[in-house]
Design goal:
The chain has six helices and nine strands, in the order αααααββαβββββββ. It has 193 residues and is α+β, with helices and mostly antiparallel strands. The strands form two sheets. Strands 1-2-3-9-4-7 form a six-stranded antiparallel beta sheet. α2 packs across α3 and α2 crosses α4.
């Protein structure tokens, strides 16, 4: 059995979340050098330290150590075959860190160069004050509830039946400001998460 590379996994998750080592160290409350040393496998962190570091990215120990599973090639997917990507999004909002945001991917996004997500935003869920920005195009359809969306300097609250489509290089943020659950089906190409 292949040995699990803690350093490589931490670095991959940190960079996917668009965090520098210094930013992660600050969020986790650990010295900057400790993040660097873990990623280079110079030190093996204690469980308590690793839990603290992962907490800075809102990632659970289970998600961190779960092997990358091979997705169903399709064309059909049951509800339990959707891939939970929630932990790959670094959430800046204290409210959202309680797990109020759920992102589940349909199939192998890299294989099709298209990421299709089923998103659930509970009341107060927020992708964070730091706007998201990545080299993609994305669109979505609000199935249920209301989605507050900032795209650059523009802001709008989309209701069920409304949709969005924009260049993801423009800074953006998703939130649920209502007291009801919001459900969105979205697509992004090339895949972001």
């Amino acid at each position: 059995m292949e040995e699990f590379d803690i350093g490589a996994r931490l670095k991959a998750m940190r960079t996917a979340g668009q965090l520098t080592q210094r930013q992660l160290a600050e969020r986790a409350g650990v010295p900057h050098a400790q993040i660097s040393n873990i990623e280079k496998n110079k030190i093996s962190p204690s469980i308590a330290t690793l839990r603290k570091v992962l907490g800075g990215m809102s990632v659970t120990m289970a998600d961190f150590f779960e092997p990358e599973r091979k997705p169903n090639p399709g064309p059909y997917f049951s509800a339990d075959e959707l891939i939970d990507l929630t932990s790959r999004v670094v959430i800046n909002s204290a409210v959202s860190q309680t797990g109020l945001l759920s992102l589940r991917q349909i199939g192998d996004a890299r294989l099709h160069n298209l990421q299709v997500l089923h998103e659930i935003y509970e009341p107060g869920a927020d992708t964070g004050e730091s706007m998201l920005q990545h080299a993609s195009s994305e669109g979505g359809y609000v199935v249920e509830g209301e989605l507050a969306l900032n795209v650059g300097d523009e802001f709008r609250i989309l209701k069920a039946g409304e949709a969005y489509l924009f260049d993801s290089r423009v800074p953006h943020r998703f939130r649920n400001l209502s007291g009801q659950r919001t459900v969105v089906v979205s697509a992004c190409t090339p895949p972001y998460l």
